[in-house]
Specification:
Layout: H1 3-13, H2 29-36, H3 38-42, H4 47-55, H5 66-90, H6 96-105, H7 107-139, H8 147-163, H9 170-196, H10 216-230, H11 239-242, H12 251-279, H13 292-301, H14 305-339, H15 357-373, H16 378-410, H17 414-444, H18 446-478, E1 491-496, H19 502-513, E2 518-525, H20 528-541, E3 547-551, H21 558-571, E4 576-586, H22 601-604, H23 610-619, E5 625-634
Parallel strand pairs: 1-2, 1-4, 2-3, 4-5
Length: about 650
């Protein structure tokens, strides 16, 4: 790492943390529930308006279907939440969907769940930041033309925050979450109360589209698409399955209680928001730049900045917290995938600040790219989001159904068998509900971007399978064989020589220090006069190592050397050959003359080592051939050894 890059890294990331600084995070339910509730609760900011954005295409007549569509979404939410309550108790170690699927269906299905979870986390960041910018856009409309770049900037700031190893305080997260829940609840309750009192509340959104004639089949498909889009409200519930260890013992029971509390609040707020939006005739398709919560706030409290600003700021805050939880969860999950040989091992290593830096950077780049490509609109990203979320849920709840069937095969206690039967029935209901959403998305949103989600998941799956096979092949090849290992018969050292100088003498000294059976100096005759001078100097100094001169009629250097090494290997396949190559390092030593000032180290390094690099690239693929580069630091103040005869 160059000094300039090291300084820049310290400025961006900060000073490194010692390994012993890391500590486990265990929270009471008072703080664990608000902290983990960020993901499911934040979906209230954009899930209800998806129903109206889709139904609004058919005009105001289709709005009559919105309450029923919202109730169908709520039914899916109840089934998923009930099934996850049993999951966290059956897997109190915090396995998550990936562990559950792998344990019950094997590594193949586990890789598919892992690929879906990768897309899920990426879209969590993209959708949450895009929705947060939309919430701020309702307060400052001048931000709208820059929404995709503002979302990308928010992703970059969140990535920098997490790269520095900083954590959001549990109290801060709890305060933001409670403020958002209180704001939405106040809007819903106030709006419903005023409507019950006979007041006429009208949304401030632009007028919806004019009435259009729709066939029953087309209206049914539109309603199904609205149901699938609104089902994005289910996202975030699976967070509890991966964070069970956040809770104090008994972890499974406390996590189940937290899921029940958060799930009930999410279902109530979602249903209330949809019903109130229907009653006040909110959100036409032309109002995509005006969030639904802002319209409901204006309808319930009037166009009062004293209410709209706190509500929308709390909305933006909880959405950014949801994106931040993805930056915390994805690198840890990617570390698990890397440990299981599904992703490169670099993702399993912590950085200077005790965080998985590579996972954070990958997540930030992927989410920012999607946000920019889709113009910063959350509505356009929902189709991709639903595919990843519900594919992992279908696999997870199907795996839990199989888990409970296995429990019933071995369990004999009547009470436990009754509980297992209830859990299995709940898992089957969740599978059917999630599968219905996934099928609807496949038919109604495939051409509108769903195919991109399928492409990403399929690509991740194939990549994970290829990485897994590669690591398995490497393990099989490098595994220590049984019995006594076979050692090489003899060792030969070959030292590349172009002139008699200090680097050459150092290479010869190192080669002799390894005590090989033979040491040979090798040079290529590309200039007859230079070769004669080298041989004469070699004999005059009585170096004591035989010098071999290779002819090269076409003035090529690397080819004759590689052919010579291959010939040595063919003559004695059980022998090992070590080739010593010189490497000049520019300007890294103490200041000594102009050479070590380091102003143009990156450019002056291009003037050296090109032959060494070419030989290294070709020889490293030859079996039984070792390549050893011996560095010579130009400008080093250390006194070099004198030229002398190398002893035999």
């Amino acid at each position: 790492m160059t000094r300039s890059w090291a300084v820049l890294k310290r400025l961006l990331v900060g000073e490194p943390f010692a390994s012993g600084r890391g500590s486990s995070l265990v929270l009471s339910k008072r703080y664990a529930i608000p902290l983990l509730a960020v993901n499911p609760i934040s979906s209230i900011a954009y899930a209800p308006e998806q129903v109206f954005l889709v139904l609004g295409v058919a005009g105001t007549a289709a709005y009559a279907l919105s309450p029923w569509t919202g109730l169908a979404v709520a039914a899916v939410m109840v089934a998923v939440i009930a099934s996850y309550r049993y999951t966290v108790q059956a897997y109190p170690g915090g396995g998550g969907d990936y562990r559950v699927v792998t344990a019950n269906f094997g590594p193949g299905a586990g890789r598919l769940a892992a690929a879906a979870l990768v897309l899920d986390y990426i879209l969590t960041v993209a959708v949450s930041t895009a929705a947060a910018v939309a919430a701020l856009d309702a307060l400052m409309p001048g931000l709208h033309p820059w929404r995709e770049w503002l979302a990308a900037a928010a992703i970059a700031l969140l990535a920098a925050f997490n790269l520095r190893g900083l954590r959001v305080s549990g109290r801060v997260a709890a305060a933001v979450t409670v403020a958002f829940v209180a704001g939405v609840a106040a809007i819903v309750l106030t709006g419903l109360a005023r409507l019950a009192a006979g007041e006429d509340l009208t949304s401030s959104a632009p007028a919806p589209a004019e009435e259009a004639e729709w066939t029953s089949a087309a209206l049914f498909l539109l309603c199904a698409r609205a149901f699938a889009a609104g089902s994005v409200a289910v996202t975030g519930v699976e967070t509890f399955t991966t964070r069970v260890r956040f809770f104090r013992p008994p972890r499974g029971r406390n996590a189940a209680a937290a899921i029940t509390t958060v799930g009930a609040a999410t279902v109530a707020l979602f249903t209330g928001t949809v019903v109130l939006a229907f009653l006040v005739r909110a959100q036409g398709p032309e109002a995509r730049g005006y969030p639904l919560l802002a319209q409901l706030s204006d309808a319930a409290f009037g166009a009062s900045p004293a209410v709209r600003w706190p509500v929308m700021l709390a909305t933006a805050g909880v959405l950014l917290l949801a994106a931040n939880t993805a930056f915390v969860g994805f690198p840890q999950l990617a570390s698990v995938f890397a440990e299981d040989s599904l992703l490169p091992r670099q993702l399993h290593k912590r950085g200077d600040r005790l965080v998985y830096s590579n996972g954070i950077l990958i997540l930030a780049v992927a989410a920012a790219l999607l946000v920019v490509l889709y113009g910063g609109g959350a509505f356009e990203l929902i189709g991709l989001y639903v595919v990843g979320v519900f594919l992992s849920m279908v696999l997870s709840h199907a795996a839990m159904s199989r888990h409970w069937r296995r429990v019933l095969d071995v369990e004999r206690d009547p009470a436990r068998r009754a509980r297992a039967r209830r859990a299995r029935a709940t898992a089957v209901a969740a599978v059917l509900a999630c599968a219905a959403v996934l099928v609807i998305v496949a038919f109604t949103m495939f051409r509108r971007g769903g195919w991109i989600a399928v492409l990403i998941i399929g690509g991740c799956y194939l990549l994970m399978r290829a990485i897994s096979r590669h690591y398995a092949a490497v393990r099989g090849e490098i595994e220590h064989p049984k019995g006594k290992p076979q050692l090489p018969s003899r060792s030969h050292a070959i030292v590349l020589a172009s002139s008699v100088n200090l680097p050459l003498m150092r290479m010869l000294s190192y080669a002799k220090a390894t005590r090989p059976d033979t040491v040979t100096a090798l040079t290529v005759n590309v200039d007859a006069a230079a070769s004669r001078r080298l041989v004469a100097e070699w004999d005059r100094r009585r170096i004591g190592v035989p010098l071999t001169v290779l002819d090269s009629p076409y003035r090529e250097i690397t080819g004759p050397i590689v052919d010579y090494v291959k010939a040595r290997r063919r003559d004695a396949p059980r022998d090992v050959v070590t080739v010593y190559l010189p490497e000049y390092v520019v300007g890294l030593g103490p200041q000594k003359g102009r050479l070590s000032r380091g102003y143009f180290n990156w450019s002056t390094s291009l003037l050296h080592n090109q032959t060494t690099k070419a030989l290294h690239r070709q020889l490293k693929y030859e079996p039984g051939v070792m390549v050893c580069t011996v560095p010579w630091i130009l400008g080093d103040s250390t006194e070099p050894p004198p030229l002398r005869r190398i002893p035999k």
